[in-house]
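Researcher: Here's a chain I'd like modeled. Treat it as a single chain, no partners, no ligands.
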Amino acid sequence: MNEHAVERRHFLKILTAISGAPILSAFESRLVWAANPAGKTAYDPTAKLEVSVSEVEMRRNSAGRMLMARIYRPKGAGPFPTLLDLHGGAWNAKDRHAEEPMDHSLASSGLLVVAIDMTLASEAPYPACVQDANYGVRWLKSKAAAWNGDASKLGVYGSSSGGQVAELLVMRPHDPRYNAIPLPEAPKVDATVAYAAMRSPVSDPLARYENAKRHNREGMMKNHVVFFKPWDAIHESNPQEILDRHEKINLAPLLIMAEALDDNVLPEIQEKFVASYQAAGGQVQFQIFEGAEHEWVANEGPQTDRARQMVKDFIARQLRTTKS
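Model: Modeled as a single isolated chain. Structure tokens:
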């Protein structure tokens, strides 16, 4: 344990003695942890580290496009906890660069963050992008150590349609359709994730489509029609309906950040999903950001800073509760 951490612990002990009650909960997210017995550097969500960025090829999809991975690697001793980023874009647009400010911020706190491309609906409909994400989890678990990462408690971050993919990964890590892409170099690695943090997830694609239909948003409606082929797939792959059907699923802790002014994925859609997930036995931290719209984290400001820190603190809690 370094000198700074010892002084901080001593200070906390003094305050505890004065108050007669434990106070760690008020300070826990700001403690500098010592390395654990296994030699892993513990995660400090307030850290500010330099980050190097590089790119590698992940796999070529059925349309012939090479799906790339963008690696945000903190500079330090490590190994660092590992996070996979799944981009949004209504299943039809965007790529690994979509959440670059968030990814860089998360990496600077001491996380190995890897953002991947996923197959777009114009290249192949559902479940192609979910297969990419499932493969991405397994691939990253097999590669993380080479980038000074620790993938033993790998988590995912998903935005908008990437949030729907993240929810499907959490609930169906062993689905044979999603596991369809082999990983010969690591055939026994599975796609389970320890947690998922999400911004504006499409937790109910049908409700989102119906909302777009009410507002006569042709582009958004078309995005659904192109992705969900056949159309019944919008029910089969619907996280809300999966819960409504009481399917046998995996449960992992979730962070869902929603926006009070989101007219794309309405706050009440998120509230219903949160209640259903909790009723199924899952843990959810749910936060509505007042005055925020669907993609508010694309703009710098206090609310964006708050969202970034919320993700870091959530991850810190998951890593603490899952450490042996």
